[in-house]
Amino acid sequence: MELFWWIIIASLAVAPGLLLKRRIKTEIQGIFFLWRTKRGLSIVKRLSKYSIFTYLADLGLVFAFGLFGAFYLIYSEHKRPVKKVIVDYVIFIISAIILIEPAFIFGNAIMNPVWMTVLLITGFGGLSLYIIIWATYSVIADLLIGKTPVPVLQPVIPGLKIPGAPIDVPLSAWISLLIVLVAHELSHAIVAVREKIRVKSLGIATAGVFPIGAFAEPDEKQMKREKPKKRLRIYAAGSMMNFVVTFAFIALMIPSQAIIQPMLLSNYYSEILTVDAGSPAAAAGLAPGMKIYNLNVLNEEKIAGTPITLATDHGNLTATRNATGSIGITFSTDMKLISNSASHWALFYYLEIVTWTAMLNFAVGMFNFLPFFIFDGARIFEDLADFYAKKLGFKKKIGRTLVKAMGVVIGLMFVLNLGIFLIQ
Hints:
With about 425 residues, the chain is α+β, with helices and mostly antiparallel strands. The chain has twelve helices and ten strands. The model is unreliable at about 105-110 (pLDDT under 50).
């Protein structure tokens, strides 16, 4: 990224903490602001009456660490019936296939049998770790042969175009990010109340002016005294709710795209750049400079001998695809608006927000299960590791030691992967 933009981002992240540290009442830790409130706790208490949240929290353990979470539910103090855990695991498998199939998330790489095996055995926590290891290997391999590494992981800053990043996150994704954070933290709070653990406050965390998270603040001292069963439910609840929200917005996104995308596309036109001599397009009267209004027909299946009718500024012209399925034109990829109407942009941003809400909830839900010390996955992993260590005859708890060791390794991998953007 250009130095100028790094300076701007750093200034907006660092300066507010330095300037306002003694002037406002909110808690400031370095550059981080913790904005606490008790508003919303009454809603949390009302929602905590519904047992579905406990079920989702238990299911979240299977989503987090696959078979390890499933066996824990059976053999731990949960003592969940085997038949019910089998149903939980089947739900996890079906959900995993639905969530990772769409090409817009990971592409074909995710369908690799190794990736799928890792997911089904170790859950989304294991898969997220595998992805980071794979990304780190790719970066190191590229550096060793002198290639510029292609980023797999990237910072998510809505509205900021990051050079070299595989995806540009639009400004409207701030709304999606807010939905992610609220769903995640409210679920933590709701399950905490169901487990009779006091929630002191709700809040939002920012790095300067940038929202970086939301939080529910259960009584940590009480949490440490409670049995792992209660703690694990609270830890798993946030990401599990993100997966639920993902499904809700996918269900909304699919019909929305089917209905709205053709409407949006009909409000754009593109110009023909070239027409091959003797081509079907030339025979139909198409010429460079003409405007094409129904771009969607060019994306239809290219079957030889099928006619397509193009709506142009010279009327409707029909060309028949040749043996290769082409009509012999190239057109500009820089599409232009026909009508810059408010209704067009309302539909555009609606679809954008719905799509990004589904994507970000999935990403946060999965990577928050990563056994890295700042994520819920580390806390889940610690209790699960202690449980299995005890079953294997270990006298000492090993969970915290493992989490610390993994935290160092994963942290270094994060630095290596995100450091790519400094050399773009």
